[in-house]
């Protein structure tokens, strides 16, 4: 039995769907045409927007591209995508109450000098470079680490050119050892990426992966959704530059990998 006040998407009548489409079409953002969407996908965007705006009026502040990302993350299932999106809005209000995270809030994490953003790949996706060997877990430091993850994701997303929705990541694990192992942090970052920034990751390169990391990888791997798994590439050391050059032009590749671009700390990008 449905609880009072809940709306069941599964039980919408044909007339209710028509009304939802009309309401979404009259909405300023909902009436926009989303590039790269089929007619069927566009209709689902309109239906989902009408539904989530009734549940949370702040949904009116997001564009249709965000609605589409959540839809695609749930294989265009409106009910599942709506639940995911409404959860995101609730999380954002509690985790980022001021709307943004300042560098002063994550000073300790930034002090590890482990995240950089510079350049773009051949499709225009901005690049984030992470050095896992510089991360050291600290007692009570998980919440700051999560804020640092959101800070970095917001930074790289802000560098996206018009028409681009994804970014690429180079995760360099040179020097990584058990002292750097932090499963709670890895799972926390994964949850943030998959649940609150869906369809943002374009490709994820692992470099200099030590054999001992595979024990941790076996713990984390089951929590990675299938769509994300397809974007992960473990790069052979002997083919590192040639593999990266398949996706990134030499002019946009960081200098440390044989490219021509200097590294820029995430807080300065």
From TrEMBL:
Specify where the region named Disordered lies, as residue ranges.
1-37
Question: Coiled-coil annotation: which residues?
Answer: none
Protein name as annotated: CRAL-TRIO domain-containing protein
Taxonomy, superkingdom: Eukaryota
Alphabetized PROSITE patterns for the sequence? CRAL_TRIO
- Identify the InterPro entries for this entry: CRAL-TRIO_dom, CRAL-TRIO_dom_sf, CRAL/TRIO_N_dom, CRAL/TRIO_N_dom_sf
> Residue ranges of the CRAL-TRIO domain?
103-265
> Where is composition skewed (Basic and acidic residues) in this entry?
1-31
Q: Which organism is it from?
A: Rhododendron griersonianum
């Amino acid at each position: 039995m449905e609880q009072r006040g809940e709306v069941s998407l599964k039980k919408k009548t044909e007339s209710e769907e028509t009304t939802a489409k009309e309401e979404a079409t009259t909405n300023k953002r909902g009436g926009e045409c989303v590039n790269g969407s089929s007619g069927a996908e566009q209709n689902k965007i309109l239906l989902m927007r009408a539904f989530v705006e009734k549940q949370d009026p702040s949904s009116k502040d997001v564009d249709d591209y965000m609605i589409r990302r959540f839809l695609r993350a749930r294989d265009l299932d409106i009910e599942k995508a709506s639940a995911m999106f409404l959860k995101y809005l609730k999380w954002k209000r509690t985790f980022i109450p001021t709307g943004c995270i300042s560098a002063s809030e994550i000073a300790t994490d930034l002090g590890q000098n482990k995240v950089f953003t510079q350049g773009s790949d051949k499709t225009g996706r901005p690049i984030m470079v992470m050095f896992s060997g510089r991360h050291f877990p600290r007692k009570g430091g998980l919440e700051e680490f999560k804020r640092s993850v959101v800070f970095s994701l917001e930074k790289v997303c802000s560098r996206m050119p018009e028409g681009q929705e994804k970014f690429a990541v180079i995760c360099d694990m040179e020097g990584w050892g058990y002292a750097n192992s932090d499963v709670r942090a890895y799972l926390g970052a994964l949850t943030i990426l998959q649940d609150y920034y869906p369809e943002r990751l374009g490709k994820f390169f692992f470099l200099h992966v030590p054999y001992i990391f595979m024990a941790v990888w076996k713990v984390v791997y089951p929590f990675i959704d299938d769509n994300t798994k397809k974007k992960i590439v473990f790069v052979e050391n002997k083919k590192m530059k040639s593999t990266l050059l398949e996706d990134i032009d030499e002019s946009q590749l960081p200098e440390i990998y044989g490219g021509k671009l200097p590294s820029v700390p995430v807080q300065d990008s």
